[in-house]
Amino acid sequence: ITSAVAFDILPLKLHPFSQSTPTGLDCVGWKRRISAPVIADGALDKTALTDDVGSEEDLYEDFRSSNHRYGHTGGGGEQLAINELISDGSVVYAEALWDHVTMDDQELGFKAGDVIEVMDATNKEWWWGRILDSEGWFPASFVRLRVNQDEPMDDYPLKVEGGKEDDSSSGPRRFGMGQTTKDQMRTNVINEIISTERDYIKHLKDICEGYIKQCRKRADMFTEEQLKTIFGNIEDIYRCQKKFVKALEKKFNKDHPHLSEVGSCFLEYQTEFQIYSEYCNNHPNACMELSRLTKVNKYVYFFEACRLLQKMIDISLDGFLLTPVQKICKYPLQLAELLKYTNPQHRDFKDVEAALNAMKNVARLINERKRRLENIDKIAQWQSSIEDWEGEDVLVRSSELIYSGELTKISQPQAKSQQRMFFLFDHQLVCCKKDLLRRDILYYKSRINMDEMEILDVEDGKDKDFNISVKNAFKLHCRAPEEVHLFCAKKPEQKQRWLKAFENERRQVQLDQETGFSITEVQKKQAMLNASKQHHTGKPKAITRPYYDFLMRQKHPTLPSTLPQQQVFMLAEPKRKPSNFWQNISRLTPFRK
Questions:
Q1: How far, in Å, CA of 174 to CA of 156, rounded?
Q2: Is the omega angle on the peptide bond into residue 590 within 30 degrees of 0, that is, cis?
């Protein structure tokens, strides 16, 4: 059983950008006419295709003139199978891919890794399920059907954390589960990993050959920049995944799948999987660009013609483009399940355990990079609100606000004290002055290069360098050239927070160097351009609806009307406490004049 969910597909003009990628649906409507054979490497036999339906252009024109509305009202085979199982009295379990946070008492909330009993899958988008004593609607695209449906629920952990079960029960871990049964469970997981990888490669191949190749032929419709925005680095991902699948298949034991040793493959490719970071960060831009293009009929017909020529399943382009985003967050879940059915004595146990941690780290890294990229827009907006800015933009060297607050700065030689607002970014400390009348307006005064500074804690009392008495003080000292800055906080706890912030700044810089994190020049320029436009209009930027939201609405009165925003990389990890840095900035220096 695949992990995706089959949905009804609305008519193309009304079909919104979905956050799930259904698989297993057959092409409808035009399927009879497109019967091109597939040659050995998976490419279409163009000669046979032309004989049956004419040229690409003929199909495009035929499709355009017919105003064909692709889609179907019937359910997918997987959903029918689920409903049949439920009707027969069988219990069907699904595992949560993402957190579902809800305030609606008719919706079922859960965290990634939770196991849900599916009680009704009649609706394509919302299923009714149960966790312990709680029941409610939940989005079908947020879950994957459990591989081993025959496993007793009593022995299945409600949370999969690090691949280890909750061993709170005093009874045996598996009631009546012998070695043979556990081997079969491991076989099921191994087979799912291999089969889903092969399906995924087919999806990537279809996107690269069915869409990108055709789009490049139409320079009159697409610029290279547009194609980069829509498809990101999916061709790099395709090349990486082809090598990964070959490595998996070499480790796959066809005769005895449970003996397969696949953990080492994930360890080998953990670094290469970081290319997903660029793709995931670009995905919102791809959705927005597709949304803009598909408002024009010729692009709607063109994308549909591409899909039909490639004999792809009945899913819109945005659905296919979501598959890499979903794929990278499924690896930890699959590995956690694999580890659960791998005996500690198995030769693959240590590698699977290490692979699970490695893939969690990859997902965390992608999440962190996404957060950092989202921050650069805020930093650009902040800079645009500062009066009398001098020198290079903050984004030239920095991408993260570490801490901010008021300090008293004491300058030599007269030991003059000045009350200033300071903003600590990675690599630099920016100093601003508040307007005397309008305290929400800041003026740029100076900045300090943190890469050359040493942090010195100063005891309360008389400072020999400045020859004055100080309290709650610290210094920034540079040896070449000799440069000393003295700062005083109002309270001891404020001083300690600043000292901790300086430690975090150095740690962040080192981590960025180790992971190779950087912001491209294009991203920096775009962020500053957006901030400049917003600044000059004098009006707040329109808030766009989160790109993950569904527009599909159901008429059923008890069904939720919208789907929540998807948290793609929130695995079975505790939620990170939200930072209040930007709230402090909004309070102290609103982005307005």
A1: 9
A2: no
- Classify 179 as helix, strand or coil: helix
> Hey, what amino acid is at 475?
K
Give which of 582, 204, 589, 219 is closest to 371, Cα–Cα.
582
Q: Are 379 and 399 in contact (CB under 8 A)?
A: yes
Q: Taking the chain, what is the end-to-end CA distance rounded to the nearest angstrom?
A: 57
Half-sphere exposure of 257 (CA within 13 A, CB side): 18
Contact assessment for residue 308 and residue 316, using Cβ atoms and an 8 Å cutoff? no
Instruction: Check: CB of residue 312 under 8 Å from CB of residue 210.
Output: yes
Q: Is 494 helix (H, G, I), strand (E, B) or coil?
A: helix
CATH of domain 400-516: 2.30.29.30
Q: Where exactly are the structural domains of the chain?
A: 76-145, 181-375, 400-516
H or E element, residue 139:
strand 134-139
| Torsion on CA atoms 280, 282, 285, 287, rounded to nearest 10 | -40
User: Is residue 30's pLDDT more than 60?
Assistant: no
| Residue 237, both tokens | 């991902």
Strand partners, 476: 455, 485
Beta strands of 328-453 (E only): which ranges?
401-411, 416-425, 428-434, 442-449
152-186 tens-digit pLDDT: 544 444 444 444 444 433 343 443 344 468 888 89
Q: What tokens does 258 get?
A: 């449970």
Express each pLDDT in 237-290 by its tens digit: 999 999 999 999 999 999 899 999 999 999 999 989 989 988 988 888 888 899
Q: Which residues contact 62 (CB under 8 A, 6 or more apart)?
A: 53, 54
Per DSSP, 208 falls in state I
Residue 131 phi, psi (nearest 5): -130, 115
Per-residue pLDDT of 208-229, as tens digits, reads 999 999 999 999 999 999 999 9
Residue 366: predicted pLDDT: 82
- Tell me the pairing of strands 483-488 and 473-478: antiparallel
Tokens of 557: 């009165």
pLDDT at 313: 84
Q: Which residues on neighbouring strands pair with residue 107, listed in sequence order?
A: 137
pLDDT tens per residue across span 69-115: 333 333 445 667 777 788 777 888 888 877 776 656 688 888 877 88
Q: What is the mean pLDDT of the chain?
A: 75
The whole-angstrom separation of Cα 189 and Cα 302 is 39
DSSP 194: H
Say which DSSP state 173 is in.
S
Number of residues that make up the chain: 593
| Token pair recorded at residue 98 | 């993402």
Fold of the CATH domain 181-375: Dbl Homology Domain; Chain A (1.20.900)
Residue 344, both tokens: 């500690």
Architecture of domain 76-145: Roll (2.30)
| pLDDT digits 0-9 by tens, 327-364 | 888 899 899 999 999 999 999 999 999 999 999 988 88
Judged by phi (left if over 0) then psi (alpha if -120 to 50, else beta), residue 388 lies in left
All residues at 6 or more sequence positions from 261 whose CB lies less than 8 Å from its CB, including other chains: 251, 347, 348, 351
